[in-house]
Fold:
Amino acid sequence: MKLEIPGPAASLQAFPKPATAWYMTGVLFLLYWLSLLDRLVISLLVDPIRRDLGITDFELSLLQGFAFGVFYAVCGLPLGWLVDRFSRRWVIFGGVTIWTLATTFCGVAHSYWQLFLARVGVGAGEAALSPAAYSLMADSFPAHRLTTALAVYSLGSLFGTGMAYLLGGVIVGLVSEHHSVLLPLVGEVRSWQLVFIAIGLPGVFLGLLVFTFREPPRRTTASSRPSTALVGQVFGEVFRHIRRHGRFFFCHHIGFTLCVMAVAGMALWAPTYLYRAFAWKPAQVGIWLGVVGTLGGVIGALGCGQLIDRQVARGRLDAHMRLFSLTSLVSVPVAVVGVLWHDPYIFLAAFFLIQVLVSPIMGISAAALQIAAPAHLRGRLSSLYLFVMILLGIGAGPSVVAAFTDFIFQDDAKVGYSLALIFVLACPLSALALHLGRPAMRSAVVENLAV
Structure:
């Protein structure tokens, strides 16, 4: 059956014209692409950073995940409140400015702790983007079109990941012939520092693109009221809503976060695996992972988005959790075979399939939350979800892989086994949580649409 929105929702203001909504989605896609490029390029610089700073895999993983993830998560909470009360375009612009400058500052860091603080800035700035983007898009697309729109937005992360591999690999290859470079005003920098500067500085100006579209009006119902209460009271309303639908939020957050942990670990350590296991050069790694990962991600995101939207339009309101309870489980043998076969091209085939199966997870999990969340709580609910997902998924995933390598296998060359192990441990639990949360999601969505 067709999905219909009953009751007072019919009296809400019209959605923006499709061309306007999709243009806005394109701008948000570009900024998401930029954020992943700035976030992940460090994965191609593991060995030179370790060499120059004298650190271990685990210490470097804290730069990849912890320094970025913890402050992304913490800053996301107040930013979610700002998203629900102030101009979302200005929130995004401020975030873009902060993270691109912080990426540039990574290029002038001369110690581990300076680089750590710069990565903190990257995380704090990027925390502004997704809660505001989710809110803007939920006010621009009807429920049975939202998953496809958010899947397109999530393609920004896939293209960003691909470009981090591809562009980063090319730049690393170009500058690796020189141990250091002399720059005007900055002075002498190492080749890996030049990569951060080259990628971060031009992005400072891209944030201005948010002012090329109008901000859509917030879609409110009789119970959706802009709050002028104190911050504690504002979040009190959010927590009351979470308690009312506790099983949905628990299963949604834990299920998707565990899968993100495995995906993030793979994204950040796959280049190092190819370096160490097969002695591939940075440019070769970048080209292969960039092309294979982007192609698989595009197929997965568009396919998942279309499939879920069709299911939601027919009244299957748990389609998001239903699909990912299956794909996260299937990804486990794919990851294990990709590593244990010990062939670079088999690994790349597995990497491609993993991108198809689970890489659209950011857009899909966000869409599930948006259709189950009241309009006036979306920014804060998204921020709380991102707090959990970034902290335990993106923040912890790379460090879990590094901990397996340093403390269990105790061999840098066995990072591939660590990648397989994180899929074996995280993804079956993810599938179980998402399956158990399906009835609760149906109830939450029905209540939200009926308001």
In short: The CA atoms of residues 149 and 403 lie 37 Å apart.
